[in-house]
Amino acid sequence: MTRDHPDRYWYGEPPKLLKEHRGAEVDGLIDAVEQAVKSYPWKNEYRAFPGPNSNTFTAWVAKEVPQLELDLPFAAIGSGYAN
Question: Which residues pair with 10 in a beta bridge?
Answer without folding.
Answer: 13
